[in-house]
Amino acid sequence: MRWREEIELLREEQRRVVAFMNWHAEWWLSHRSRRDPVEDDIREGLVAYAERQAFLRRRMASHFQALWSSPVATTKSSIEENSE
Q1: Residue 64 and residue 59: Cα distance in Å, rounded?
Q2: Cα(21)–Cα(23) distance, rounded to whole angstroms?
Q3: How many Å apart are CA 48 and CA 56, to the nearest integer?
Q4: Domain-by-domain residue ranges, the chain?
Q5: Measured over all CA atoms, what is the biggest interatomic distance in the chain, rounded to whole angstroms?
Q6: Each residue of 34-75: pLDDT tens digit?
Q7: Is residue 29 within 8 Å of residue 54, measured between CB atoms?
Q8: How high is the pLDDT of residue 69?
Q9: Per-residue three-class SS string for 26-65
Q10: Total-model pTM
Q11: Which of 1, 54, 70, 79 allows an S-S link to 25, with CB 3.0 to 4.6 Å?
Q12: Contacts by 1-5 with C-beta closer than 8 Å and gap 24+?
């Protein structure tokens, strides 16, 4: 019974990590040009940096989602088989 609880908690934590990474990517995009007034070349650098950070967060979210999708499902089914 405790194993099932742990699996449920783990799945929720994984879901939240992916959701946070996606939220953080959007946060970076919303802050691309928050610094005013700045020179054009500095603004270009700030925008590029924010877009890179957003890209990295989305990539991490995608990687975690792919990494976590299979093992949790396999673990859950093997635990359920052993508990019956």
Answers
A1: 9
A2: 5
A3: 12
A4: 2-83
A5: 67
A6: 777 788 888 899 999 999 999 999 999 999 999 998 755 555
A7: yes
A8: 87
A9: HHHHHCCCCCCCCCHHHHHHHHHHHHHHHHHHHHHHHHHH
A10: 0.74
A11: 54
A12: 3/79, 3/83, 4/79, 4/80, 4/83
